[in-house]
Amino acid sequence: MKKHLLTISLFLYTITGFADCNPDASNCINTITGPLEQITKSHSGDDYSYLTLNGKEIYKAKADYMVVGESDSDGIFKEKKYLMTKATISYTSDDACYSNKVVAHCSMKVILDLTSGKPVISNEFYADYGPSRITWVSWGKANSIIVIDDYLRFKYANGHVEQVTKVKDAAGTSIEGK
């Protein structure tokens, strides 16, 4: 009897947790403004992957899929439930990022900020050398710092991301980042 109650409880929890999500969504995340859904290119029916918030498109990218950085997100707890307020979004673009380099595709990143009550998507940012990953994020109220591959630092504030470290080009001279 206890097994059946446990099974029924888990079933009901699963149904209520995803009741507002599109069945085509590959992932559904609770945010302070409603459910955030990720829809992959294979489920979208076109050449794009999408992020939707409350069923409305907020971002699309020409990529197989997008990853919302839940482990490095920022959020609040409300009624014993974690609600995301800010997150990094990463994807490998199907479009070329560099016109003059052998590595034509790159790991694009944007910031999703829901702290104002409406979705704000930052400008795209990426490392100048190809595939990369976000190694840590420090979320702050005025601005946030995003670190890629342990040394490239970017600053996010008011919907805009800028690179705050310099990178070395192949000749060893210092150049400004994106």
Structure description:
With 178 residues, this protein is mainly beta. The protein has one domain (2-176). 11% of the residues lie in helices and 43% in strands. It has helices at residues 2-17, 41-44; strands spanning 27-31, 34-39, 49-53, 56-61, 67-68, 74-78, 81-92, 107-113, 120-121, 134-138, 144-148, 152-157, 160-163, 166-168, 174-176. The strands form 4 sheets. Strands 5, 6, 7, 8 and 9 form a 5-stranded antiparallel beta sheet that branches. The longest helix has 16 residues, at 2-17. The termini are far apart. The relative contact order is 0.11.
Percent helix among the residues? 10-25%
User: In percent terms, what proportion of residues is strand?
Assistant: 35-45%
Tell the overall outline.
globular
Poorly predicted tracts of residues: 1-19, 169-175
Order of helices and strands: HEEHEEEEEEEEEEEEE
Q: What's the number of domains?
A: 1
Mean pLDDT: 79
Structural class: mainly beta
- What is the rounded Rg? 19 Å
Number of helices: 2
